[in-house]
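TA notes, week 10

Several of you asked for a full example with nothing omitted. So below is the full record: structure tokens for the whole chain, then the designed sequence directly under it. When grading your own attempts, check the secondary structure regions first.
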């Protein structure tokens, strides 16, 4: 179910309520994406296996905490703009345009292959959201840019485990999380499970990435 556009009764000084409503709609899906990302990171944290277990297990906790802070910032900005941040699991599932993360218990590097696609999707759609905000409100744009700075660093941490000596990523040219996990880690460790759609904010038919 797609979120319904709504105009707040009031918003921050210098913006019209119509502009505030546009920003609330942009941030609403960013909030869902960040909340989902935090849950996904914890899911991976609990389900990594293999010789890289402790390194990946411990790498993900600081990322989870940072993403939760990003979600809090997005929610508080929605409130400041006069909107109502929706943080319940039911609303997230109803309004999101993507399926659950596709990998269960698996090799740590396989999980990082799938997580690389997750970060690609959320970063691309965060950039689109920042571009939309830029024409309306530099404060909201700045918030999203701040998120991007950390999200892109986190993806760099992930990709450092996926890059070979020639500088190529093992996940290059894959189109789903399951494929990325198989390309990055031992295929025998990847459980048979429905592959999630790649995009996080696009239509469900788009398989290229987990955009959020």
């Amino acid at each position: 179910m797609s979120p319904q556009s709504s105009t707040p009764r009031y918003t921050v000084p210098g913006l019209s309520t119509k502009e505030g409503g546009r920003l609330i709609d942009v941030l609403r899906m960013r909030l869902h994406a960040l909340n989902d990302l935090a849950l996904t990171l914890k899911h991976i944290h609990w389900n990594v296996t293999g010789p890289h277990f402790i390194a990946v297990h411990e790498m993900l906790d600081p990322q989870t905490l940072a993403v939760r802070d990003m979600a809090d910032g997005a929610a508080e900005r929605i409130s400041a703009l006069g909107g109502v941040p929706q943080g319940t699991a039911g609303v997230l599932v109803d309004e999101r345009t993507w399926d659950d993360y596709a990998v269960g218990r698996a090799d740590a590097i396989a999980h990082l292959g799938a997580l690389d696609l997750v970060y690609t999707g959320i970063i691309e759609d965060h950039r689109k959201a920042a571009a939309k905000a830029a024409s309306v409100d530099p404060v909201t744009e700045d918030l999203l840019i701040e998120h991007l700075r950390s999200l892109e660093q986190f993806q760099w941490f992930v990709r450092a485990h996926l890059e070979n000596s020639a500088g190529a990523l093992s996940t290059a040219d894959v189109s789903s999380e399951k494929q990325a996990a198989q390309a990055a880690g031992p295929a025998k460790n990847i459980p048979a499970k429905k592959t999630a759609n790649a995009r996080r904010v696009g239509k469900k038919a788009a398989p290229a990435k987990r955009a959020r």
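The CA atoms of residues 102 and 180 lie 10 Å apart. Use that as a sanity check on your answer.
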